[in-house]
């Protein structure tokens, strides 16, 4: 796990600029750093190292092939590097160390761009190919690792983080107000699901994409190397399907336990993280295994009683942190600086605290359960497309619908809610202004901003349930959550690994009919059934999903309230041109009068203004360097 940066250009590049880029990302790689320049000086690669596999100097980057014709800078992990190395060795390759970086470099040397099909991992990398005079870049299938780039005249500049790119003088820092507004309306939409970022000058490789840059023409060519395409339905009985899924998930955990530094887990007490901890304990035996939990004592959001059951069942060593709202206010500049974009709720600060706890106990690698909800059907709202898929198959779902309503009362929208969701924003705004009500963030945004949600195409042969899962896995919820996880873990130089974001897990799940995913009135039925005898029954049969959500209402009513009021009453807020200031101040008044649910609405302007203050303002105040050597 590392930070990467680099510049390829038509003219010689100043290495000092790339060094400055990597210096902004020391948190991503405190264990070492390196720079490499091509013989003609037109390509410079930079790297910050967090040593995980082969912590010796043999794993240092940028790494060159034995003949010097290829050089790699790589962020992430290739989990199946041992298996890939065995294949390469059988075909005549030799290795001087045992790092996955060296294996990736050799795999490209042997198979070229087709090497991507052989990799099971999370990664973003850039590889200089001196023989073909090109730069080859790629991002993993789910987009766990970021790959951001810009194309100022005559150059191609890439990095793991926005702040690194924005140290380069030729890259603008203007903000697209419509993309920012889309995030404010729907935090899982607008910032992570398209090529252009919130900065018009900065783009990103999307999950499952690679890029080839011809160094003569400097024209980047992007293609998709992986798309989730369900194959033929898995043969066998339900019992056999559940067993097969259990095998795939267990193997995913097995691969992600590979490390030359300590490995532990995040543990919320929910089904997903509990499953990972139980499988890790099964695979590792009786050795010490550390788990890290965020608590909210005295709140319904506190899941420690469930996490404690997993700790008791596995014998793991538990560490607990209680995120504190006063500390959030104090640490807001640091938190925002590392997250780089506004975040959807205070949940992300709680996650940040859990990773810091792991750092305090010197556990470098953390397994976590992210991805299961989107891939396997873990949210109650998926019951609506589930029932639609069943009806489309000609099935009578009336009894099943009643069972769902009994177990998950909020899963199925009422007619009134459907009408409300379909109401245009301009009409909601009129009604809200007339009645002094409303809680839609869109009501507080300046008129004229484009807040329309993007259309997300899914493979046409999927049923309604899998259309919804595909959308949330590859376009909305999960990409945003993966960004949070990357930035919050890297802020503390921790590596987070996600067994559910193994392409084999998704490829298997998406071949299955709806009733194997969410039948028998169960979210994530596939996982629940496959883990019988592995998970404690109280966890396996826990139906009430809470999510990792701090008591934001209490936080805002307490230590955060003065900071919130200062934000909404500041001249900067009034002059931003983004907000309907009077409406937001009335929302704050309503919150203080007892409408506690408005805390989740008020978070959006608070965190966005914090982003302007603590991320954009410091960057704009810092002198920048040109990429051009003749300008140095």
From TrEMBL:
Keywords: Amino-acid biosynthesis, Asparagine biosynthesis, ATP-binding, Glutamine amidotransferase, Ligase, Nucleotide-binding, Signal. The active site is at 2 (for gatase activity). It comes from the Bacteria. GO terms for molecular function: asparagine synthase (glutamine-hydrolyzing) activity; ATP binding. Pathway: Amino-acid biosynthesis; L-asparagine biosynthesis; L-asparagine from L-aspartate (L-Gln route): step 1/1. InterPro entries: Asn_synth_AEB (IPR006426), Asn_synthase (IPR001962), ASN_synthetase/amidase (IPR051786), AsnB_N (IPR033738), GATase_2_dom (IPR017932), Ntn_hydrolases_N (IPR029055), Rossmann-like_a/b/a_fold (IPR014729). Its EC number is 6.3.5.4. Residues 2-216 form the Glutamine amidotransferase type-2 domain. One of its GO terms (biological process) is asparagine biosynthetic process. It holds the Pfam family Asn_synthase. Residues 1-19 form the signal peptide. Belongs to the asparagine synthetase family. This is asparagine synthase (glutamine-hydrolyzing). It comes from Magnetospirillum aberrantis SpK.
